[in-house]
Amino acid sequence: MEGLCKNCGQMHLVSAETQEEADRIASESCDCENEAKWHRMMEENVEMLCGEQSRDLNFIPLDDTSLRYVKTTCELIHAGFISNAKFSAANSEIKINGVLGKVDIKRTKKQTNQMTI
Ligand SMILES: [Zn+2]
């Protein structure tokens, strides 16, 4: 059936049971540029890399305040107010860079092994 993207109004052919579902699928699969969509994707990515889900990548999750800081930094870079940021948190280094209108987040684990005998 036909679903309508809530962001740009574009029509998409989707398989859905109800109009509501069709519109939701159309909105999610539409590749239009949209701030709300960007924001949702950014939140998901930051959660994956720095939130509880980062345990799957063998990272220590950031505390809520730091996590908010990462998201705010992404927003500031996205808005063009700052160009990059680098900081250390939860035994890792986090680099956020604005590259050609996109925001790159890189998290590197600080791992040092030392033995004193
Ligand atoms: Zn759209």
Automatic annotation (TrEMBL):
It comes from the Bacteria. This is Uncharacterized protein. It comes from Mogibacterium diversum.
